[in-house]
Amino acid sequence: MSPTQSDPAGSKVTLWLDPVCPFSWNTARWLRAVAEKTGLAIDWQLMNLAVLNEGREMPPAQRARMRDSLQIGRLMAAIAREHGSGGWTAAYFAFGERYFDRSEPVNANLVAHVLTTVGVRGATAAAVSDASLDEYVRRQHQTGQDALGELGGSPILRIDEHTFFGPVLTAVPDTEATIALFDAVATLGAIPQFAQLQRPRAAD
Predict the structure, then answer these.
(1) Which pLDDT score, from 0 to 100, does residue 85 have?
(2) Secondary structure of the chain as H, E, C letters
(3) What pLDDT, on the 0 to 100 scale, is given for residue 89?
(4) pLDDT at residue number 98
(5) What are the phi and psi torsion angles at 23 (to 5°)?
(6) With a threshold of 0.85, does the pTM exceed it?
(7) Is residue 4 over pLDDT 50?
(8) N- to C-terminal Cα distance for the chain?
(9) Which of 189, 197, 137, 143 is nearest to 163 (CA)?
(10) How far apart (Å, rounded) are the C-alpha atoms in residues 95 and 23?
């Protein structure tokens, strides 16, 4: 039996995500649940939809999302630079609870809440406007694109040496399905002939 099937904790897992992507919010919470159940170690990495979509014409709602992506990408980069992966992922989950679960806009109050909640030092609210952080964001973003081997959106998941876009989740799976989904994704990802599987998204 594959180690990814019998022992998720034995897998090497990297997740690249954009902090403002709603589907990545579901994927991140699912993987965190797997980690809590199994001891799985996750290497959390930034990617950036604003970088991915540079130069593309978009409707106003998507342009607003790209603005959030740019600003929050900078904030997470500033925290990561000072406090590493653990610092920015703690900030990410604090941010997501307000941005996604409470539909709060990206503004000074939300940024201050994130910084206060995780108790970071060396990162300030001014980071959202600090263009000098863009190079850090771009480097992390590019590592995800390179791992995938082509342009891909958020999230990008690597399990051991197998990298793919997704899984795209419309909600966090039920508790009993958490590890089963990980096993299924790991199994499909390890099959070199497997390319794509898609079904319509359920209506909200």
Answers:
(1) 86
(2) CCHHHHCHHHCCEEEEECCCCHHHHHHHHHHHHHHHHHCCCEEEEECCHHHHCCCCCCCHHHHHHHHHHHHHHHHHHHHHHHHHHHHHHHHHHHHHHHHCCCCCCCCHHHHHHHHHHHCCCCCCHHHHHCHHHHHHHHHHHHHHHHHHCCCCCCCEEEECCEEEECCCCCCCCCHHHHHHHHHHHHHHHCCCCCCCCCCCCCCC
(3) 94
(4) 97
(5) -70, -35
(6) yes
(7) no
(8) 37
(9) 189
(10) 15
Is residue 77 within 8 Å of 92, Cβ to Cβ? no
Give the distance from CA 127 to its chain's centroid: 19
What is the C-alpha to C-alpha distance for residues 152 and 165, in angstroms, rounded to an integer?
6
What's the order of all strands across the beta sheet hosting 13-17? 42-46, 13-17, 156-159, 162-165
Confidence of residue 9 (pLDDT cuts 50, 70, 90): low
Supply 197's token pair: 């599987």
| Crossing angle (nearest 10°) for helices 60-99 and 134-148 | 90
Peptide bond into 60 cis (omega under 30): no
